[in-house]
Amino acid sequence: MLSGAVMLVFTPLVHSPAAYLRFFIFAQVFYGVGVGGEYPMAASSAAERSQSDPALRQRRGEQVVLTFSQQGMGSLVNCSVILILMALAGQTGQALDPTASRNIIILQVWKAEREDAVDIAHTMENKRPHHLYRTVLREFGPRLVVTCLAWMAANFAFYGAMLFQAEFFTALYPTATPFQRLQWTALNSGIALLGYWAAAALVDKPWYGRRKMQAVGFFMVAALCMACGAGYHALTASTAGYHAFQALYFLSSFFNQFGPNCTTWLVAAEVFPTDVRTTFQGASAAWGKIGAIIADIVFGIVRWGPGATY
């Protein structure tokens, strides 16, 4: 992850467009390998650490979700750092200087923290016989299908909203500068972070819990997005309507975190045996990225039409 992050930071120094694209894809794939390992390890180690500590056994969901909330914290810190650097570089107007923008990207601070995982009493001592996976797939295959599909649906909504966030704010505020639009992005990240924390606070409560949180979260995201679509013309007809539109969008970010984005990550770390937990949690996360790809394709078709080059 750290090596990939360093390569991504220095990507703007590549001047040739073709070389830039190749280098960026390589760095992204290299970074993705690290993330693909970090995701399941962070979830599984948080779950197992909670289970091994008597004081945390009844707060396992909270501990895992709080670990996941660092994703939201990273988004907020990222926007905040860029805003500060843009202000210091004087990049607050409509036109951005390419050199200053490149320097802002390079100056962003990338930090990878590691935490030692606790020893698990029943490890396989690095032995993974092939029949273990056959047995586990036979017994837990249905669970894997559910965690994969749930994560794919969650990321379809999550990345569908995030990928086109800049265009959303541009449509609402066409005269706003990039600096101003980034402020709205930072606010949205802050509201999403509140969703992570709300999920951590309620996920272990018997009267709410994982199942209800995921169901309510999916329902609210769908209802809020449908309200935006059904009321689009009315919501974009006045200044008050724009504010209502923005409030609906922000609420969808909150309920995405206070719902499927957190629960899919948590449940996939709880429903599989320890010996294959990280593998199956990582496989579920990979299907989540497929949902993100589908969102990118579908939103592009909706905007530009089938067969368009975009």
Automatic annotation (TrEMBL):
<dbReference type="GO" id="GO:0022857">
    <property type="term" value="F:transmembrane transporter activity"/>
</dbReference>
<feature type="transmembrane region" description="Helical">
    <location>
        <begin position="184"/>
        <end position="203"/>
    </location>
</feature>
<dbReference type="Pfam" id="PF00083">
    <property type="entry name" value="Sugar_tr"/>
</dbReference>
<protein>
    <submittedName>
        <fullName>Inorganic phosphate transporter PHO84</fullName>
    </submittedName>
</protein>
<keyword id="KW-0812">Transmembrane</keyword>
<dbReference type="InterPro" id="IPR005828">
    <property type="entry name" value="MFS_sugar_transport-like"/>
</dbReference>
<feature type="transmembrane region" description="Helical">
    <location>
        <begin position="215"/>
        <end position="235"/>
    </location>
</feature>
<dbReference type="GO" id="GO:0016020">
    <property type="term" value="C:membrane"/>
</dbReference>
<keyword id="KW-0472">Membrane</keyword>
<keyword id="KW-1133">Transmembrane helix</keyword>
<feature type="transmembrane region" description="Helical">
    <location>
        <begin position="144"/>
        <end position="164"/>
    </location>
</feature>
<dbReference type="InterPro" id="IPR036259">
    <property type="entry name" value="MFS_trans_sf"/>
</dbReference>
